[in-house]
Every structure is written in structure tokens, then in C-alpha cells.
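Hey,

Quick one before I head out. I ran the complex with pyridoxal-5'-phosphate overnight. Inputs first:
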Amino acid sequence: MTPKKPFDPAACREEFPLLADPPGGKPMHYLDSAATAQTVAAALRAVRRHETMTRANVLRGVHFLAEAATDAYDQARRAVARYLGVADAEEVIFTGGTTGSINLLAHSFGSLLAEGDEILVSELEHHSNIVPWQMLAERRGVRLRVLPVTEDGRLDLDRLPAHLSARCKLVALTHASNVTGAIADVGRIVETARAVGARVFLDGAQRAPQGPLDLPALGIDFYAFSSHKLYGPTGVGVLWGRRPLLEAMPPFMGGGGMIEQVSFAGTRYAGIPRRFEAGTPPIAEAIGLGAAVGWAGGLDWAGATAHEARLTGRILDGLAGIRGAKVIGPAGLQNRLGVIAFTIDGLHPHDVCQWLDRRNVALRGGHHCAQPLMERFGVAGTTRASIAPYNSDADVDALLAGLDEAVARLA
Ligand code: PLP
């Protein structure tokens, strides 16, 4: 392997056209990457290359363009597999995003469950990892159990054994929270789940953009993430699962592309991954994602993570000095992403966001699709800043100055 170039924050930012050359010419302080990250130039180039040179449907035609498009689509699948540390690329299923992946799992894996079986989720989950399971519970009489979080916004793993029974078939938890930034202790989750024979699914929407993974080594069974949070195009994401489990699951959607043979006497389904990719897939988007993970896989993540942690520390220190500010999440930097949710006494998160928007600081305000967590902490919503490798000290300076100003003027 060629050694990676040491992480250079300024060079990294240059690879994101919207930040390097912001619309309107004013510096853009983009601190909303947990909602959607900016798209890396390599992904934009790959999409353009496909659209201008290999555009055709995949896995269908025999003409030159159809074969070139199919090759590019397959290559994207292999690039994703490499990023996930997965040897068998057919275990990688392209979906519409994390939400699409979890709905696929809830329908397909869920159809194998019996009344009275249990699924464990937690208070920390995004609605995407709650609602599909609730819908399954309604359909099949499956019971949903909910693991609480600690005061500092982590999964309360001390209470995990008490929430697992022999009826638990799936532990479905977030790998890293989109509100508190807490990164889960996967080893402990897997060990405890295995003790009752439960499978483990991790929602990787927030963790996957933070560097390559080794999913088989984590010991989990299923994983999901979205391309648009991983510097790639919108409209595509991934569900990964272990081959024997995926092969035992029935298709979720029916249509073209997912069959071996169709007749009115009966239909034979294709093997994985095609069985789960009915209809024309998001071809250009998947190709863009392949380029995005290729780029992310080549980054010096030790350097990028240290850079992000330093910026996160600056924000946490800055918030400690702001009157009435309170962080919901871990106070330190250990096992935590640069996703920082906070409230400020007397200020509505939307007002904070609007005030900061005047300084070209993009934040998120609201419940972050995590209403049960908001309820747990007794708030209707929070303001959230989220850090990606392309963020700079200037972004943090603008954020802290803007918050000082908002408190002085509005609180
Ligand atoms: N899970 C987590 C932890 C998230 O942060 C998000 C998006 O914010 C999702 C799931 C849903 O992702 P998508 O809207 O891309 O399907």
C-alpha cells in the first residue's frame, strides 16, 4: 500500500467545490454535515463521466453503453465493499439511503419473525431506526423494546442485558448519534446480543462518513448508511448484510431486475444483491458514491480525526463560556463525533440558526428526527453544529462569534 498523504485541512476543503468556490463569493461556514455533507469533486466527476460517456441502464442491455454502465455500477459496488472491509461485494445492496435500507430490513428480515419476537432499539435512534420497526410491530405483533440513554447521551449499555430476552431477534442501534455524537461500544453490544442469540444491525449514517470500516471484524450482521452524508450524491445508500442472512431473506420490492424467471405459474428470484434491487437502480448516484468512498478511503483519517476532534473541542470549550448554553451529549472528546447539539436559555433553536445564517454559518435547529431523545432530555429541539474534515478554524470562529452576538442581542 502506498502511504497516505498527511491530512491537510486546506487541501481537503479545496476538493469540495461548493466550499472552495462558494455561491455569492462569501466564505461558507458549513456546519451541517450531519444532515448532508458537501459533495467531493471526485464524485461529481464520476457522475459527469457516467452521464456523458456511459449512460445506459444496467444489467439489461448487451450494447456497448449498457455494458460500460454495468461495469461502472459493479465497480462502485466493489469500491463500497472495500470501504466497508467486506470481501464479498455481493453483500452490498444499493438502496435509496439509510431510511430505504432500514425499511428493506424491517420488511424482509421482519417477515421471518413471529408474533411475540422482540426487536431492541434505543432512545438515541433517528426516526428512521424507530418508525419502520414500529410499523413491523403493528404488522406482525413483534414487540419493540427500548434501551435508555445515559445523562451524557450515550446508550446505557449497563442496562442492555435487562432489555434482552431469548425472544430478541434483532438489536438495532445507532453506530453514532446524529444528536449527541456518541459513538457506540460495538464490541459490548455484539457480545451481549450474541448471548441471547440476537442479530445486530447498526445504523451507520453518521459513522460511515468518518473513515473506512471493517464490518466483519465488528461482528455485526447488518449495516446501513447514506451516500449524501459520505460526500457522495443524494438518492443512494447501502444495506450490507452477511450473505447467509441476506440469502435467507425474501425480496422487499418486486419488479424488473430482481428475478431469474417470471411466469404466471410462479416467479424465481435472483440471488443477492439483485434480489433486493428491483427496478432501475440509482445508477449515476451509485457510481458517484463509488468515487466518494474511493476518495474517503484514501484520506489520512488519523489526521482528519485529530483535526475534527480539535475543532469539536474548540466548540465545546466555546459553548462552556456562553451564558445559558448547555450541551446535550458527552462533555469530552472520547468516543464522540463532532456532532454537537446544544440549547441556549431563552433562545429558540430556529432563531439561533437564522441569526447565524446571516453570518453564512449553516447550522441545524429542531428535533433532528429524534423526538424520543428530545423528550428524554425535556427539550422540544436543539441547535446542532456538525463537523466534517473540510471544516476550518474560521468556521468555528464564525460560529462562536455568531453565538455570542445572538445571546447579546436576542436572549
Ligand atoms: N440515521 C441517522 C443516525 C441519521 O443521522 C440519518 C439522517 O439524518 C438517518 C438515519 C436517515 O438518513 P437518510 O435520510 O439519508 O435516509
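The chain has 15 helices and 15 strands.

Talk tomorrow,
K.
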